[in-house]
Amino acid sequence: MSTRAIYPGSFDPVTLGHLDIIHRSANIVDELYVAVLNNQQKNPLFSVEERVEMLKETTATLSNVIVTSFQGLLVDFAKRVDARLIIRGIRAITDFEYELQMAQTNRIMEHGLDTMFLTSSLEYSYLSSSTVKEVAMLGGDISHFVVPAVARKTREKFCERS
Ligand code: PNS
Hints:
Blueprint: E1 4-9, H1 16-28, E2 31-37, H2 48-58, E3 65-70, H3 74-81, E4 85-90, H4 93-109, E5 114-119, H5 129-137, H6 148-161
Bound molecules: 4'-phosphopantetheine.
């Protein structure tokens, strides 16, 4: 039986930390859906279409990765694509409480749906999309945190806004 998993997130924007989890997960499962949450309430910097596009560009070499977006509950999306495994990255103990709560909530709603946690690689354990946005907004160099195309698009966003 082949394993189909979902790596969900906001990806606003995709960081090297996310890409590390995507590459490692794609080596473990047969098919990986990278699913971008379409949630305007979070007031994202990038539209969902832009986030999907950046993820598609940065994962183009991975033949078993499918990038898409979803709205509403993750458990409903999982049912639609017939996936029984969710993958999330854990950077530090501070991530754990929220991740545990989400994993338990999802499993209560959908018993067959498990969450697998990958510990982030040490070099990305400090990294988040929020940090990337803050550094970019203040004119700092984000080239250590994201791929060059994403760095350029993030800088452009802040230029457009100012
Ligand atoms: O990258 P993020 O913002 O930490 O990702 C959070 C995400 C998208 C995985 C989470 O907010 C989510 O699954 N949202 C969909 C709504 C849902 O299913 N909520 C119930 C589970 S708590």
